[in-house]
Amino acid sequence: MTEIAHGAVVVLPGEAILSRWWRTLDKGVLLSVTMLFAIGIVLGLAASVPLAERNGQSPFYYVERQVIFGAMAFVVMLSVSAMSPQLVRRLAVFGFAFALVALMLLPVLGTDFGKGATRWYSLGFASLQPSEFLKPVFITTAAWLMAAGAEPNGPPGKTISFAFLGLITIFLALQPDFGQAMLIIVAWSAVYFVAGAPIVLLTGVVGAVGLAGIIAYNNSEHFARRIDGFLSPDVDPRTQMGYAIDAIREGGFLGTGVNEGRVKWTLPDAHTDFIIAVAAEEYGMILVLAVIALFATITYRSLLRLCVERDVFIRLAGTGLTVLLASQAFINLGVAVRLLPAKGMTLPFVSYGGSSLIAMGLLMGMLLCFTRQRPQAEIGDHLLSNGYR
């Protein structure tokens, strides 16, 4: 059989699509995601039973729903990962348009489910949080705009993406959802940095975020309460943060034992935002370190593959999605140990949540697509294709 070598991957003429997909896929990342989801199911068996009991549901009601949502997330992830980067880009642009409209209509049609923040659409059988889906499609769209702007006679991609970022931030602040706004700003800044943004402009973005934080603190009771609670030297043991810290302290290195934890009976969000507190109490620091290692593996392997990618769009989009995933995991874990103010953010693939799981499946599918090994043209070919002669 004739083999044609192009850079980092070998193209096999006549190879089946499924075979090529599996051969070029980053199976280490796929395994890490699968292990995170498995850990989430195990923790859900412990954390969600008390909640189901309080809500009059069957003991494993939330676990069963998590399995269903997780299966849907894996179907989305594997399907998107098999697409071409061009198709993923087009779907992301259309998806961004729909997600942005859905975000803008939340103040009119959305609901807060009694949590004080209008972030969801009630579908009767489930709820939908547009910001979860907005994150990956916006970052991919921003990467496309910046990549197009880098071409000769290209559009002002950086300016357009920055305008969209400002619009998204405003509507997220109206919910209010400052955590998601900060996450999107961080991921967009990473794409902007890789695209060659001047340090002065990035410094200006940081300054603008700081100014927005001061304004939000002075005008939002919700935001000010969380900041004051974070800065307070004492932690009220009756708050979610107090329960989480006690659980982590109680678990030690090896944990109290399976189903021996107490925090799940007192912590309202034990199955979502503070799932890592349940892990720390029952399974100890050893499981927490394993979760951190899995996220680190996904981040490292993805960035390593993107380092050799010569397509500007793929490099920018992949970097932004990787930073988005890693940042959300860092924020969730940081809140649990009081390194960061409470954000109301799930731990990817581990926490319970339909919108979060499916949106993360979409994100990982896009990332797996962008990090698949593919023929890399010579650098001279890229320069010629961009008009440099």
Write structural notes for this entry.
- With 389 residues, this protein is an all-alpha fold.
- The chain has 15 helices and four strands.
- The strands form two sheets. It has a two-stranded antiparallel ribbon with strand order 1-2. It has a two-stranded antiparallel sheet with strand order 3-4.
- α6 runs antiparallel to α7 (178-194) and α13 runs antiparallel to α14 (354-370).
Labels describing this entry:
389 residues; disordered N terminus; globular; 4 strands; 67% helix; mainly alpha; two-stranded antiparallel sheet
Layout of secondary structure:
Elements: E1 4-6, E2 9-11, H1 17-24, H2 27-54, H3 61-81, H4 85-109, E3 121-122, E4 127-128, H5 130-149, H6 157-174, H7 178-194, H8 199-219, H9 221-231, H10 240-251, H11 275-283, H12 285-306, H13 312-336, H14 354-370, H15 379-385
Give a quick rundown of the structure.
The chain is mainly alpha-helical and 389 residues long. The protein has helices at residues 17-24, 27-54, 61-81, 85-109, 130-149, 157-174, 178-194, 199-219, 221-231, 240-251, 275-283, 285-306, 312-336, 354-370, 379-385, and strands spanning 4-6, 9-11, 121-122, 127-128.
- Strand order within the widest beta sheet: 1-2
Distance between the termini: 37 Å
Q: Assign the structural class, choosing from mainly alpha, mainly beta, alpha/beta, alpha+beta, or little secondary structure.
A: mainly alpha
Low-confidence stretches: 1-8
Strand content: under 5%
Helix count from the secondary structure assignment: 15
Approximately how much helix is present in the residues?
A: 55-70%
